[in-house]
Automatic annotation (TrEMBL):
The keyword rRNA-binding does not apply. Residues 79-190 form the DUF641 domain. This is DUF641 domain-containing protein. The lineage of its organism: Eukaryota, Viridiplantae, Streptophyta, Embryophyta, Tracheophyta. Residues 359-408 form the GIL1/IRKI C-terminal domain. It comes from the Eukaryota.
Length: 414
């Protein structure tokens, strides 16, 4: 009996709160004149059991005298969760009614049984509340994750679009790179051919100067008016020659100084027709007003002094024809024209190269350098501290390629 009283006392607060919700009265507890109307609606908020849910109910005209003792399965599903809550509340109402009826007549066993049933249904409702809050929290977390996924998906789409654009750009750049590589290969091949061709012309021009110096020296030797020793000294003085035969290089230096004087590598000319003719006199006859024809005439007047021509041939007939813009068909003039042809082609070739070409001249007294110089009398060693006396061919720099200047070196240390 004490247990029943204690149990009832412990639940007094819960029952008093829940009584506000249920508003049920036992038929055996109240007198007949205070019987409640079974058709009167009952609307109250379930504030203590569910904090955010409101329910409006209309009492049924007939209430079962036996409350449901089946505890519903605890799972939160949007489709049927609310019906489970309603079922539990209905069962709780009936259990509370049974609890009231157990007091009149007073039956401790029924009171305990009804009390346990009420507590069981209240625990079920509390479990529903916890489950709802947990599910709500999970749904909130899922919503946040869904929002985050949507944001990440949008970012991913943007990144995919950027990646696609980058792939297109990469494809375009690869094609451009392949095109540039192919073009560079062609240019490299062209440069190799150009440099190789320039080297051929360079050596041909150097040889033609050497070839013209031979008849010039021969004619000077055959003429009593010329003293070779004095002529050599007048060209380059105070030179110690290793051999007497080396003095011929002084005449080559004389020719080079006049043939390359005033040459500029900024005026490319087409030399195809000139190179197609073996005899330069034929080219001069075919193109008497060409730049090469003017170059040839001007250089002849500069290289062959009137005193030279008069002493060689006894007259100035060739000079007279050249002054008139004509070109005599003599052996001497043919040799000169051949030299003039190769010098002209060398300058035109250098000016027409894609790679920038520069001509350089080594000054007298410069220390020998194997990078930019080549000795005309054989191999020279830099450690011997040899010095340049004069040049017999200027040097050229085409891109990274160097065509060495031909120099005569002093045989005595300075």
């Amino acid at each position: 009996m004490e247990n029943a009283v204690v149990k009832t006392s412990n639940l007094s607060d819960i029952i008093s709160k829940f009584a506000k919700v249920c508003k049920f009265r036992s038929v055996g507890v109240f007198p007949d004149h205070q019987k409640p109307s079974l058709n009167k609606p009952c609307d109250e908020e379930v504030e203590e059991v569910f904090e955010d849910n409101k329910a409006k109910e209309t009492e049924a005209t007939h209430i079962s005298s036996k409350p449901s003792r089946k505890v519903p399965t605890l799972s939160w599903n949007d489709d049927d969760a609310i019906w489970k809550v309603f079922d539990t509340v209905s069962s709780l109402k009936l259990a509370y009614l049974e609890f009231q009826q157990a007091h009149l007549p007073y039956d401790p066993d029924k009171i305990i049984q009804a009390d346990n049933l009420v507590v069981s249904h209240l625990e079920t409702l509390r479990s529903f509340k916890r489950l709802y809050l947990k599910t709500k929290k999970q749904l909130h977390a899922k919503t946040e994750l869904r929002d985050e996924v949507e944001v990440n998906e949008k970012i991913l789409e943007k990144l995919k679009a950027k990646m696609k654009a980058k792939e297109s750009e990469i494809h375009f750049l690869k094609e451009k790179l392949n095109s540039l590589v192919a073009e560079n290969k062609k240019l490299e091949d062209k440069i190799v051919v150009s440099v190789s061709s320039f080297e051929f012309v360079f050596r041909a021009a150097s040889k033609s100067i050497h070839d013209f110096s031979k008849p010039l020296i021969t004619l000077m030797k055959a003429t009593e008016d010329w003293n070779l020793e004095k002529a050599v000294e007048s060209i380059v003085g105070n030179v110690t020659y290793a051999k007497n035969s080396d003095k011929k290089f002084a005449f080559e230096s004389y020719i080079v100084q006049r043939m390359f004087h005033g040459m500029k590598l900024d005026n490319p000319c087409d030399v195809t027709e000139l190179m197609s003719l073996d005899d330069p006199l034929d080219a001069l006859a075919a193109f008497p007003d060409s730049a090469f024809a003017r170059f040839c005439g001007q250089k002849y007047l500069l290289v062959v002094h009137p005193l030279m021509e008069a002493s060689f041939f006894g007259n100035l007939d060739m000079r007279g024809l050249v002054l008139l813009g004509k070109h005599p068909r003599t052996v001497f003039y043919r040799i000169f024209a051949k030299m003039a042809k190769w010098v002209w082609v060398l300058g035109s070739f250098a000016a027409s190269l894609d790679l920038k070409a520069k001509m350089f001249v080594v000054r007298r007294g410069t220390r020998f350098s194997g990078v930019y110089m080549e000795s005309v009398v054989g191999d020279a060693k830099e450690e011997e501290d040899l010095r340049v006396e004069f040049i017999t061919m200027p040097g050229f720099k085409v891109g990274d390629s160097v065509f060495k200047s031909h120099v005569y070196l002093s045989q005595t240390k300075r």
